[in-house]
Amino acid sequence: MQHDLFSSLESFQVFSAAAGPLLVREAGGQYRPAGANEVLHAAQRLLASQVRGSDVMSSPAVVRDFLKARLGTLPHEVFAVVHLDSQNRVIDYVEMFRGTVSQTSVYPREVVRDALVRNSSALLLVHNHPSGVATPSRADECLTQTLKAAAALVDVRVLDHFIVAGDSTRSMAEMGLV
Predict the structure, then answer these.
(1) Domain coverage including residue 29
(2) Within this chain, do residues 43 and 30 fall inside the same structural domain, yes or no?
(3) Which residues of the chain have pLDDT under 50?
(4) Does residue 68 belong to any structural domain of this protein?
(5) Is 108 exposed, middle or buried (0-12, 13-18, 19+ CB in 10 A)?
């Protein structure tokens, strides 16, 4: 079933106020209120389209918003990589590893292999803390240094490692840890 998501003030005139401003048009042409998951998926697609091809260094707020929307509410840890070209434009966002509520296993070999496949010049490392605390652990610091050294062997730079916890995002580069 194909959906057409849109936000419209006209929908208030046609439908009752209880329907809300965001509606989904079904394949048959009927409209219904969008569910919470549909709203989140639409927001993620919109943010992803703004991030892909964007200059990460000139729009860090967009990247942070994307990461919060993508990882902020997950009940388990996810380790992801934002692949960048030589001009620091986003090539791709890849969720590489999934873990439990408090940890995930990350394999440097797989991160480097994925960077080579995508012809990345630089990487932004990302993972979430379902605990709600965005402070990097000692294990996070060690992992960052290991990945930075492994990527450097194939001339790929690690620019930052973001930790997302709910509505907050911490940059390990801004903390002097990258």
Answers:
(1) 4-34
(2) no
(3) 1-19
(4) yes
(5) middle
